[in-house]
Amino acid sequence: MKGFGAFFCLALSVNIFQPHPAETTRLQFGQCSLMVNLQEIRDYFSEIKQIIQAEDAITDIRLLTESVFHGIQAEESCCFLRHMLRFYVETVFKHHTPSSSFIERRTSSLANSFLSIKRNLRQCNAQLKCQCGEESKVKIGEIQNAFENLDLNAAAVKAIGEVDFLIHWMAQSHQN
Predict the structure, then answer these.
(1) How many helices (H) and strands (E) does the chain have?
(2) How much is the pLDDT for 150?
(3) pLDDT at 173
(4) CB 41 within 8 A of CB 149
(5) Which has the closest alpha carbon to 37: 19, 15, 21?
(6) Residues in contact with 10: Cβ distance below 8 Å, sequence separation at least 6, in sequence order
(7) pLDDT tens per residue across span 105-116
(8) pLDDT, tens digit, for every residue of 41-95?
(9) Cβ pair 135, 73 in contact under 8 A
(10) Which domains does the chain have, with CATH numbers?
(11) Do residues 26 and 34 lie in contact, with contact meaning Cβ atoms separated by under 8 Å?
(12) What is the pTM of this model?
């Protein structure tokens, strides 16, 4: 019985000092249902938001606005999100040159969060649950064209500084 008491205390102490599991939210994008840790994404972004937005020297152009997300029908939302995350992971973060190691760590964490969601969306796409309509394709194309017409690092800074529009759209429009 002595051994069990020591084991119980060890198990209890390990359990107490382990971080709490990430709080996830179920989001619905068309027919695709995902568990996403929106708070973690918000935290990563909020830690760098002021710095990144202060680095954004292009004030007359916006890549993302609330209007970009208007008109995306529920059945197209999975496809739109999949393409937005692909754009961020494969283009934006790739062309960003962080101004400090802190920014590098936080943008890397943000990119990893996006990559995780993108993987889950890939499963929905494989199950034919992510239907792409013309509206989604046009909007993604406009964002990518605007990005490519700017200096790539400056465009990356701008796109990262506007992530809050994407986070807001994900949270407001798609929570179950």
Answers:
(1) 9, 2
(2) 95
(3) 64
(4) no
(5) 21
(6) none
(7) 999 999 999 999
(8) 999 999 999 999 999 999 999 999 888 888 888 889 999 999 999 999 999 999 9
(9) yes
(10) 33-174 (1.20.1250.10)
(11) yes
(12) 0.83
How far is it, in rounded angstroms, from Cα 10 to Cα 31? 44
Closest CA to 162 of 97, 25, 67, 79: 67
Q: Are 47 and 148 in contact (CB under 8 A)?
A: no
Q: How far apart are CA 167 and CA 58, in angstroms?
A: 22
Question: Is there a contact between 101 and 32 (Cβ–Cβ < 8 Å)?
Answer: no
- Closest among 59, 73, 61, 47 to 164, alpha carbons compared: 47
Q: How confident is the model at residue 129 (pLDDT cuts 50, 70, 90)?
A: confident
CA gap 71, 115 in Å, rounded: 25
Q: Which two tokens stand for residue 63?
A: 């890549």
